[in-house]
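User: Can you write out an input/output pair for a complex, sequences first and structure second?

Assistant: Here is one pair. Inputs:
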Amino acid sequence: MAEIKACIFDMDGVLVSTEIYHFKAWKRLTETLGFTIDEAFNENLKGVSRSVCIDLILKHGGLAKTQDEKDALAAQKNQWFLEYVQTEITPKNVYPGVIDFLKEVQSRGIKTAIGSASKNAPLLIEKLGIKSYFNAIVDGNMITKAKPNPEVFLKGAELIGVKPENCVVFEDAISGVEAAKNGGMYCIGVGDSTILNKADFCIHSFTEMNFDRLSDL
Ligand code: B16
Ligand code: MG
């Protein structure tokens, strides 16, 4: 690929192990509605905005709701998610190898940004104490188009002043990998390569990543 000048990181499921709490809250919500979701279905919810998740879930359960009802369901899910955040999430939820990799790429002059669909990203970043590792943060409050639209990553690239072709995106979601590719960026999937099969390649953990491996791309 072209010279790498920036790394853009998705947050939930890439930097921090928070996807399980989104899944628990969505599952709890569907059970109040008389059905349930499994981990395979949850792959469709990863990286997608809260309102799009509600539409996908209602379609899956064969239910129709008014906009007010959907807003109330989204608020309930978010309340449960935030309860998990308050009671269960600590800096230990930052995935192994993440901080070392961030420090290493920063020391080599590579810019770093977060590109997250989550409106809760500012709260989590604060709680996890990781803000200083990034030159820019784009979250769900700053964008209007959900992944797979590339808006979140293009905005991140713009804020750090790097062209898309010089950016590497790290993503754990099918929608996020598509967003990165739609934005003309190189994409490293974090997770199962059979699920993230549109990524340029996949890693399981940041313990596998370092500056030399990045330079070899
Ligand atoms: P919120 P990411 C995404 O964050 C999560 O993957 C997804 O599960 C969640 O529904 C979405 O944020 C919206 O989050 O309800 O907190 O605004 O992976 O893009 O960092
Ligand atoms: Mg994610």
